[in-house]
Amino acid sequence: MVGGSARSRAPRECTQDPEAWPHAVVDDVAAAVVQTIARRLADALRERGLSRRGAADLLGVNRQTIADVIEGRCWPDVATIARLETGLNTPLWPPLARR
């Protein structure tokens, strides 16, 4: 588990311009992974014509959690990512973190 204050700021707050999330420049490797997950999740929902509420009903993941991941307001846990990836049949986690 990440120690210290590494998760005291939301992923979007680890960017040079939080308002540009999920396309802002990210200096933190963990926030960059969450940024990729957020982009891929938003793209998958858009491609399937799913609202966040519709995705929540379909995937068994809380609507607010989906919104928070997409908006970079939370550090999603492994269980959430696994449910999203499985339910959407789409890889969200990047194959190699940007450095």
UniProtKB/TrEMBL annotation:
It comes from the Bacteria. Residues 41-96 form the HTH cro/C1-type domain. Pfam families: HTH_3 (PF01381). SMART domains: HTH_XRE. InterPro entries: Cro/C1-type_HTH, Lambda_DNA-bd_dom_sf. Coiled coil: none annotated. This is HTH cro/C1-type domain-containing protein. It comes from Streptomyces spongiicola.
